[in-house]
Specification:
alpha/beta, globular, Nucleotidyltransferase, domain 5, 10 helices, 2 domains, 337 residues, 10 strands, binds 5'-O-[(R)-(carboxyoxy)(hydroxy)phosphoryl]adenosine
Length: 337
């Protein structure tokens, strides 16, 4: 199984993606971003599943053609089992099961979150274990001690909003648009992060996070000032908000790393694409003599390469899944005590 051709499929939210791997190595991948949601300011679940239905066949065909391969070359199928939108997951899972059944090849259901974590090591046959992972996406903000694939301890997590969710909500509040994270990142690049000091939350004796207070603070700031002032200073307000999020993420991660004697930190998830987080983490890691891993930008947000790569590891440590596996919209990582 070690150097089999694996087809990965990802349809958990609003990206329809497929990737082809030979063992741990990426051959080709395609991510089709659904544009239908833009005018609604967020993902519309029903539209997402319809789009996956329309796009998945052509995306898989495209990835095979661009790799000079055909269906008969596929030796295993990997697919996101959860977490994600129920209808969207079902489209990918049904497609993957049909393919695995028709081609008589093994099926691997993959936890999307594990995909994000190990996306850092795509192409590698050895994992630098153990490490401390800061997982920051649209649905998650967690600090995880990763002993090995499938052996995790939860160190801290958000008590309310996820970091990506805060980016998206504040972008809407400031009239910046959707998707919020990448847009705030972009307009902040030429703006002043010290324009306004938003409070940073922390919890005594805990590595947990909180972003809802910060979001409320931005709302109050918008209400207190004139619409013209907000419009004129939108970029600097966004940059000041981003700075607060990045500071909170760094503070908790670096404190946990020091307390738990971790010398290796791994960033994962959509917010790991944030240029300010990457820049400040890189500086801090150099200062603290910490080995820092940040996923290639292509593999920070949702993609199928991370799903195929995770299936490569699953194929080494466990048996394939049965064809009756279900989509699990609220699938979580299982944590050791
Ligand atoms: O990992 P992901 O693609 O999907 C989930 O599994 O949730 O993460 C999406 C989240 C969104 O909230 C998006 O706004 C945020 O990641 N994001 C960013 C950036 N790129 C994506 N947040 C801040 N800066 C970015 N450059
Ligand atoms: Zn994701």
């Amino acid at each position: 199984m070690s150097d089999s051709i694996i087809l990965g499929i990802e349809t958990s939210c609003d990206e329809t993606a497929a990737a082809l791997f030979r063992g741990p190595e990426l051959i080709h991948h395609i991510t089709a971003t659904q544009l239908v949601h833009t005018s609604y300011g967020g993902v519309v679940p029903e539209y997402a599943s319809r789009e996956h239905n329309k796009l998945l066949g052509p995306v898989v065909k495209g990835v095979l053609e661009q790799s000079d391969m055909g269906l008969k070359d596929i030796e295993a199928v990997a697919v996101t089992q959860g977490p994600g939108l129920a209808g969207s997951l079902l489209v990918g899972l049904s497609y993957a099961k049909g393919l695995a059944l028709g081609l008589e090849v093994p099926l691997f259901g993959v936890n999307h979150i594990e995909g994000h974590i190990f996306a850092n090591f795509i192409g590698q046959r050895e994992l630098p274990l153990p490490f401390l992972c800061l997982l920051v996406s649209g649905g998650h903000t967690q600090l995880i001690h990763v002993e090995s694939p499938q052996k995790y301890n939860l160190i801290g997590q958000t008590r309310d909003d996820a970091a990506g969710e805060a980016f998206d909500k504040v972008a809407r509040l400031l009239g910046i648009g959707y998707p919020g994270g990448p847009l705030i990142d972009r307009i902040s690049q030429q703006a002043d992060p010290d324009f306004h000091h938003f409070p940073r939350s922390s919890f005594e004796g805990s590595y947990d996070f909180s972003f809802s207070g910060l979001k409320t603070n931005v709302l109050q700031y918008v209400q207190k000032n004139s619409p013209d002032f907000i419009r004129e200073n939108k970029a600097s307000i966004a940059a000041s908000f981003q700075e607060a999020v990045v500071d909170v993420l760094m503070q908790q991660t670096l404190t946990a790393a020091a307390d738990l004697h971790h010398k290796r930190i791994v960033l994962a998830g959509g917010v790991a694409a944030n240029s300010r987080l990457r820049e400040k983490m890189t500086q801090a890691a150099t200062q603290e003599n910490i080995e820092l891993f940040q996923p290639d930008l292509r593999f920070c947000t949702d993609n199928a390469a991370m799903i195929a790569y995770m299936a490569y590891w699953k194929s080494i440590i466990s048996e394939p899944d049965k064809l009756d596996i279900a989509a699990i919209p609220n699938l979580k990582l299982s944590f050791l005590e």
